[in-house]
Amino acid sequence: MKRRVVVTGMGAITPIGNSVDAFWESVKQGKIGFDRISYFDASEYKCKLAAEVKDFNAENYMDKKSARRMEQFCQFAVAAAKEAMEDAGIDMEKEDAFRVGCAVGSGIGSIQAMEREYTRLVEKGPSKISPLFVPLMISNMAAGNVSIVFGLKGKNINVVTACATGTNSIGEAFRTIQYGDADIMLAGGTESSITPLGVGGFAALTALSTSEDPERCSIPFDKDRSGFVMGEGAGIVVLEELEHAKARGAKIYAEVAGYGCSADAFHITSPAEDGSGAATAMINAVKDAGIQPTDITYINAHGTSTHHNDLFETRAIKYAFGDHAYNIKINSTKSMIGHLLGAAGAVEFVTCVKEIEEGFIHKTVGLQESEEEMDLNYCKESSEEDITYALSNSLGFGGHNASILVKKFSE
């Protein structure tokens, strides 16, 4: 029998709060994290807004030497992992370190390091490239640094599936515990790509919103949506085998009930137009949980605010749930924090857990009116109601589809 897996700790660094409590309070208030880009002069860029993390000081989470040896995407991961570990009350001296693992992904790694060292190469020659360039830049270093800082000697993986990274990381950690390869896994995603090359590259794809109005830039499912707004941050959760968690008296937030994946095999940036790929991931997650499609009443959508994603994800939900799709409440956390790329699914997973815990479904902020085909309930207003299951979707460039199903915990 597959072992049951529960959530016992959570951590978050986001554009609207640098802890789970601060983030969640902002979510309930419908606070948005969008503003003009401050990291560099974006005056000549098509996209001028982003959702930057505010007031983050790495030295609040680690010593100065460690901070200097990490790029910001790693710092975010370690900071969120620290909160999650403390929240879960994990004492590594009481654990078999080889049974505690880490699945923390980043979709890109450090574009900052690439920009910085390429400039040195061009201006000063190859001898001036930093000897730490590669270990600072590569995306697996978030998982590497988290494991080093906290002494996690079990399975250590970095799933890279673009915008599905965070969800796939949590899903693979879930599987790891289910099948007995670990008792505890720190899992999630992290990203920090608000850089000249990062913003310029996504803008060149015409994927980013060119709106200069923070109130109308990231508006998932709205007929006036024009692209996503780049965000940054990290979401890390502690997943734990149920009996292990009970034995140490851990607080249990929720249970991970199902995980489903698929590939569109269609286009490098566009989802499959009929929604069949994303639908299959959702169907697989529901089947994995051993429940019926009609048991699903809430979905935290990928909901990026691009024309194709929101339309095709709507089609996917109808494909997966048929007429029942009209009974499902659907929202997008990206309406407040933008698109955190590899961290998106992880922060949205945290959102799902908090929504289950408090019986609160947040509104899709900024949503005014959808076009004709998009006729589902996209949560123009927040609501208070009991949630048994929360299904979270993440869809990545390359056709990666991942859905994870969170359940209210019961014995």
What does this structure look like?
The protein has 411 residues and is an alpha/beta fold. It has 13 helices and 14 strands. Strands 5-4-6-7-1-8-14-13-9-10 form a ten-stranded mixed β-sheet, sandwiched between helices. A two-stranded antiparallel ribbon has the order 2-3. The radius of gyration is 20 Å and the shape is globular. The mean pLDDT is 97.
Structure summary:
The protein has 411 residues and is α/β, with parallel strands linked by helices. The chain has helices spanning 20-29, 64-68, 72-88, 111-124, 133-137, 141-150, 165-178, 196-204, 242-247, 276-289, 307-321, 334-337, 344-358; strands at 5-13, 35-36, 49-50, 100-105, 156-157, 184-191, 233-241, 254-263, 298-300, 329-331, 360-361, 383-384, 389-396, 400-407.
* Mean pLDDT over the residues: 97
Strand content: 15-25%
The low-confidence runs, each spanning 5 or more residues with pLDDT under 50, are none
Shape: globular
Number of strands: 14
The number of helical runs is 13
Strand order of the largest sheet: 5-4-6-7-1-8-14-13-9-10
How far apart are the termini? 16 Å
* Gyration radius over CA: 20 Å
Judged by helices, strands and strand pairing, the structural class is alpha/beta
- Largest sheet entry: 10 strands, mixed
What is the string of helix and strand elements?
EHEEHHEHHHEHEHEHEHEHEHHEEEE
Helix content: 25-40%
